[in-house]
Amino acid sequence: MTQSPPLPVIGLVSCVREVGIHPFHIVGEKYVFVIARACQAMPLLIPALGSEIDIDDLLRRLDGVFFPGSPSMVAPHHYGGTPSRPGTHHDPQRDETTLPLIRRAIERGVPLLAICRGFQELNVALGGTLHEFVQDVPGMMDHREDKSQPREAQYAPAHGLELVPDGRLAELAGGAAADVNSLHTQGIDRLGKRLVVEARAPDGLIEAARVADAANFALGLQWHPEYQWHSAYGGAKAKDPFSVAIFRAFADAARARAAARRVTFTDEVA
Length: 270
Fold this sequence. Notes:
Layout: E1 9-13, E2 15-19, E3 22-26, H1 29-38, E4 42-46, H2 55-60, E5 64-67, H3 92-108, E6 112-115, H4 117-125, E7 130-131, H5 151-154, E8 159-163, H6 168-172, E9 178-180, E10 187-188, E11 195-200, E12 206-211, E13 218-221, H7 225-229, H8 231-234, H9 241-269
Parallel strand pairs: 1-4, 1-5, 5-6, 6-13
Antiparallel strand pairs: 2-3, 7-10, 8-9, 8-11, 11-12, 12-13
Helix pairs in contact: 3-4
């Protein structure tokens, strides 16, 4: 009997949150589900240990890295911004983990997908800057969700996307227009080096970018396709084809790396 190849392993970076009086390293369930179900991969939670992680050793074990969203915001000192307002939620352990991990993953050609906070981290890791409060920038929309509404309403499509013609996202969208949700406070200001715009919101805010010279899949998105993909989190509606295509492309890149790693391991053993 022919055995199926092992599932690709995709790392999910954790946040540090206090639950009661204790800090926990956590990842939202929707991100775990989308890696396990949409990507048909094994999610591996990466603790936010900063410099205590041997990044090269970690990446040797992974077929992809996923940088999910989070309620916390990237600390402004990482991109030369002004100090945050009192009460702003930061996660210094996550910042210290993700920024070097992103740079090294790109260098090593490990497939990378970054969503919401993850997209902002991707931009900062490559030298870009952020608007800390997009809604305060003249001419910009308020991109935050209404937290008084039920979850399905918060994650409902909020605006259209202006997809760059002939871009990777336009290809995945099949040339169709795309509507996406919007649940963020920070946003891209100056685009990081090596990044190329893939989509914008109607107010001009950058909603997606890819690493132009990456050896493998390396894409950042400001919205939350993981919610639109999975019916358990997106209500009764069918899975969104655009979201499915995004995760399928990421999964294909991870499977290709997994297959290459197996060949390398077999050669070394032989």
